[in-house]
Each structure stands twice: as C-alpha cells, then as structure tokens.
Amino acid sequence: MSEDEELPAAAGQVARAYPEIWRAYAALGAACAASGPIEDQALRLVKLALAIGAGSEGGVHSHCRRALEEGVPAAALKQVALLAIPTLGFPRSVAALTWVEDVTDPEARRHASTG
Fold first, then answer.
1. Looking at the structure, do residues 87 and 51 belong to the same domain, yes or no?
2. Which of 54, 43, 62, 47 is nearest to 100 (CA)?
3. What CATH code is carried by the domain that includes residue 89?
4. Alpha-carbon distance 58 to 8, whole Å?
5. Cβ-proximal residues to 73 (8 Å cutoff; 6+ apart), any chain
6. Residue 19 shares a structural domain with residue 44
7. Does 74 lie in the same domain as 20?
8. CA distance linking residue 36 with residue 101, whole number of Å
9. Domain span at residue 47?
10. Three-state SS for 2?
11. In 2-36, which positions are buried (b, 16+ CB within 10 angstroms) versus exposed (e)?
C-alpha cells in the first residue's frame, strides 16, 4: 500500500495530484521529528497536542490512529485532550476529547451521538 492510500481522502487526493509537494512535505515532517531528542511515544503525544491546539479534527484522528498503532495507551491520548482544559478552555478540550474517542472508542461515540 502506498503512503498516500493511508491518508484521509482529501490529503490522499492532494498527495496523488501533487506527488513532489507531498514528498517534500513528508520529508519536512521527518526532518522536524529528527531535529531533537524527543522520540517515539512522546513525539506522537506532542504531535497530538499540537493538532488539538490547532483545532484540527483530522490531525487529532490521524495522530490517535498512529499512536494506537505504536502502542500508546488510549488513556494517554485522552489525557492529552484533558490537559488542554487550562490552556485552551473547556469547550475546545471537550471537542478534542470527542475526536480522540472517535478513534479510541468508536462504538461508544456512535451510541452517544444517536442517544
């Protein structure tokens, strides 16, 4: 499977339409990740926190999926959303928590939205 097939639909379309831009963007991300001592699960949690701070639902979903694949506990992902309360405010943090739970507890989220 190619890297762009794992992307959300819109990002995958851009990656296929503009492969040079996508390769440069991916290389920039890799260079930023390698620029210091933060690694592995800590790096993934930082990226999740940045996506939460930016209000990026797609970014939160993506980083949560990757984090779970890398063995980060779902409870840690939820804690990152809760840590946003004092800095970003309760409403933004609750929104982020629902985005995290879209990935960590999809069945519970479906029942919550229909109930």
1. yes
2. 62
3. 1.20.1290.10
4. 8
5. none
6. no
7. no
8. 30
9. 37-115
10. coil
11. eebeebeeeebeebeeeeeebeeeeeeeeeeeeee
pTM: 0.85
Summarised one tens digit per residue, pLDDT across range 55-92 is 999 999 999 999 999 999 999 999 999 999 999 999 99
Q: Sorting pLDDT into bands at 50, 70 and 90, what band is 108?
A: confident
Q: Which of 72, 73, 50, 48 is nearest to 62 (CA)?
A: 48
How much of the chain is helix, strand and coil, in % rounded to 5?
Answer: 80, 0, 20
Q: Indicate the pLDDT class of residue 4, thresholds 50, 70 and 90.
A: very low
- How far CA 78 is from CA of 15, 40, 68, in Å, comes to 30, 18, 12
